[in-house]
From TrEMBL:
Family: Belongs to the SIMIBI class G3E GTPase family. ZNG1 subfamily.
Keyword Transmembrane among UniProt keywords: no
Record's protein name: Cobalamin biosynthesis protein CobW
Xref: InterPro entries: CobW, CobW-likC_sf, CobW-like_C, CobW/HypB/UreG_nucleotide-bd, P-loop_NTPase, Zinc-reg_GTPase_activator
SUPFAM superfamilies cross-referenced by the UniProt entry: Hypothetical protein YjiA, C-terminal domain, P-loop containing nucleoside triphosphate hydrolases
Function, in words: Zinc chaperone that directly transfers zinc cofactor to target proteins, thereby activating them. Zinc is transferred from the CXCC motif in the GTPase domain to the zinc binding site in target proteins in a process requiring GTP hydrolysis.
Gene Ontology MF terms: hydrolase activity; nucleotide binding
GO CC term, one of those recorded: cytoplasm
Organism lineage: Bacteria, Pseudomonadati, Pseudomonadota, Alphaproteobacteria, Rhodospirillales
Catalytic activity as recorded in UniProt: GTP + H2O = GDP + phosphate + H(+)
Keywords noted in UniProt: Chaperone, Hydrolase, Nucleotide-binding
Length: 376
């Protein structure tokens, strides 16, 4: 029988010697171990979802749970991962938070989502958190110091996924020397440090907070390109952890999980551009959902999407397309001008066969013109 605190005190006062002897001879139960959580961050299209899907297919014997955050009204990544059918992480252990930023909505979204997983009859062995491509990881890690969270979960590690092709092409950062100068000024507390693009600032914060850096899409660059990636990261973090090369999201789960970093206890060592700010916004970026008609010719669609992204400077495209006569939906993933498609699963019998794409870019995108070009 488990006694309430008041009842227990009453029993001790009535029978002091037996109760004291009981307390001395009975071992105290050990506190429940904290459930580890891994935060996977990385810019738009870096390959986070592909990485997680591979992890679900090879979890190393762990029961996993996912919290997925997306920048946009339609949760494409969540739909992809929920539809993969992996026993290690069934759909009811996948929580999707669309059209928001976890680090900005800790109390409203993140903590309740975490508690939902923790309060299950069969809690997970490990929680994977996929941030949106525009999220800053440090504010999210700080959320693990909240009283409702810190006694039950620990940040096993922050994993930054860096796209080799994008970094090698200089899309995220200036040359290494300029990057090193900016880093030194930031560490010296210079509030006037400016970045060439808001993309660069997000990229830097993600790398600076990481316990492990995965270089993805290594099949798209040569050794010179990979050397350029390493130089860029080293300029930003001279003491950065080793870079792990990954192609097609294939990585041993023991490399990703079990880092035991306890990142929430190490916040001061994780430099951020927003350390002196109470919050931050995403006014530099925008997103919308474009509705398209059914597409009979997927190859023509890919060509058109590539042209539209280049013409309007779109950072990211992702969504699902209805191809008449095909029982499966067509998954579209676009990063810059690179467009990839695949049939990911059957349309459900009661599911509307809609063609929808999430369009993400810097503020100022001409939505009407883009929608017209996509529907042409």
């Amino acid at each position: 029988m488990i006694l309430s605190p008041l009842l227990f005190l009453f029993k001790v006062s009535q029978h002091p010697l037996p109760s004291l002897r009981y307390l001395k001879d009975t071992p105290m139960s050990a506190p429940s171990p904290k459930i580890p959580a891994t935060v996977i961050t990385g810019f738009l299209g870096a390959g986070k979802t592909t990485l997680i899907r591979g992890l679900l297919q090879n979890p190393g014997g762990r029961k996993l749970a996912l919290i997925i955050n997306e920048f946009g009204d339609v949760g494409v990544d969540g739909a992809v991962l929920k539809g993969c059918g992996d026993a290690a992480c069934p759909e009811d252990r996948v929580i999707e938070l669309a059209n928001g930023c976890l680090c900005c909505t800790v109390a409203d979204d993140f903590v309740p989502a975490l508690e939902t997983l923790l309060n299950r009859a069969d809690p997970p062995d490990h929680i994977i958190i996929e941030t949106s491509g525009l999220a800053l990881p440090k504010p999210l890690v700080r959320a693990f110091t909240w009283p409702a969270v810190r006694s039950r979960v620990t940040v096993d590690g922050v994993v930054a996924v860096v796209a080799a092709d994008a970094v090698a092409e200089g899309r995220f950062a200036p040359d290494a020397e300029a990057l090193a100068r900016q880093k030194a000024a930031m560490e010296a507390g210079d509030a006037t440090v400016e970045h060439e693009t808001p993309v660069q600032e997000v990229f830097e914060d993600q790398v600076l907070c990481a316990d492990l850096i995965l270089v993805s899409k290594t099949d798209l660059v040569d050794e010179a390109g990979l050397a350029a990636v390493a130089e860029t990261v080293k300029a930003l973090r001279p003491t950065a952890p080793p870079l792990v090369r990954v192609a097609h999201g294939d990585v041993d789960p023991n490399v990703l999980l079990g880092l035991s970093a306890a990142a929430e206890a190490d916040l001061d060592a994780r430099v951020s551009h927003h350390d002196n700010e109470e919050d931050h916004d995403h006014d530099d970026f925008t997103s919308f959902v474009a509705e398209l008609p059914s597409q009979a010719d997927p190859e023509a669609l890919v060509r058109r999407l590539g042209e539209v992204t280049q013409r309007f400077g779109i950072l990211r495209l992702k969504g699902f397309i209805d191809v008449p006569g095909k029982p499966m939906r067509l998954l579209v993933q676009g990063v810059g001008p690179r467009i990839q498609t695949s049939y990911d699963r059957l349309w459900a019998p009661d599911e509307a066969r809609r063609s929808r794409l999430v369009v993400i870019g810097e503020t100022g995108l001409d939505r009407a013109a883009i929608e017209a070009a996509l529907a042409a």
